UniProtKB/TrEMBL annotation:
This is Glycosyl transferase family 1 domain-containing protein. Keywords: Coiled coil. It comes from Paenibacillus aceti. The lineage of its organism: Bacteria, Bacillati, Bacillota, Bacilli, Bacillales. Residues 214-241 form a coiled coil. Residues 174-347 form the Glycosyl transferase family domain. Gene3D superfamilies: Glycogen Phosphorylase B.
Amino acid sequence: MRPLRIGYVGGHSAKVNERVIDDQWTAYLGEYTDLVRIPPFVFIRLFGGSINKWMRRFPDGLDELGEGLRRVCAKYDVQVLYMNLPMMIPFLLMARNYKQLDLSILFMAHSVASPFWLKQWIGITPFLTDRDILLTSTRSCKRALTNIAPVYESATEIPLCIGMRNTAPSEAAEQRILAISRLENVKNIDALLSCFFRVREQVPGAKLTIAGEFTGSQQQISEYKQMLEELMDRYELHQAVEFVGPKTGEAKDQLFSAASLLVNFSTDPGETFGFNLLEAKVWGLPVVCTNWDGFQELVSPDEDGLLVDCSWNGEKPCIDLEQAAQACVRLLTDSRLQRQLSEGARKNALLYDYRVIMPKIVQTVEAHLALSGRIENKLPLESVATTPLRELPHIYDIERLKPSGWLHETPLSILSLESAEPLAEWMSRVKPLIRHFAGEGMIYAQH
């Protein structure tokens, strides 16, 4: 029997964390399918070198884009495209539907409510069909998507996966906390420093390693670096905290092996899973993290980690830093608890072994391919693409999208919309979509 043949965009994300996850995921997928690398420029050429230029020709460019997509699929002999270039997904779906191509698009929800991704989901909504395979890593993520539009009820919940380690990690030689993430305000590195100051009052020998790259605009990066430097000075943490930059491969492994626990205080509106929490499981490393979005499903309290309360009664989510500090202190000073959570972490990591997860993904793709046949345009494609969202209540959840301020935009125009709102303003705009990220008193259980 011929193995499932899937084409994918053979490029790499500029962001370290996205690159690591996608490279691992495609490597695992390649063990279970005939994975065909298609150079990124092949897709870029479909748009004449520029998506924005193509958009200015809409709808005249639809036929040309559809024919180009047909030729690409024929050349590489694929019926499924794994699209890890998200900005192209709405347009390829649109062109596929227009030409009624025998093609399925496979893609993942790595984020929902970041400014970039929310625009993509709004643009994707009218053109998603039963042939397409959308994977969400958590129930919380899927709920956020369905708050945008009911069509996302068709998404399949399958978590991200990872390879297992053959040996158990050695015990850390010192009381060292590790944090790995993008360095920006939604990741709450400033709150982490404030928390660590509290930890040091009870565990004077504690150390903190912060790994990751600063992200955002140059102004945002400059302002956030200054804020963190001021906190380092105020709390006199320069001898106890080190920023080591982005790490991958063996250098990243060394960070995990030297740590006593991992912390993640993210309240990122785009957060869906928390891959470094999964990496920690593989290392048998307990975690302390916010009770936020997919973290609630990935971490089992008192089994492989500790969750910290995160309320959202004001403009932005608020972390209980005193509770966070006490959780860190418990794990740094209670060797029995740390061993218990470490054993639980390694045990629970097996649930995310790629040898368990990837066959489920292949089965899901094959089930969608069984629907092979004529793509029916349930809605007038060109009209929907150029109709304001406020006139599409049969497609979108208009009430939840109203605070976004985008109801005058169309599914097409929103894709080129520039937005650079301050964090507090943006969080209030997307709160109706992701209020449940802060828990609402509910703890999701993965196990």
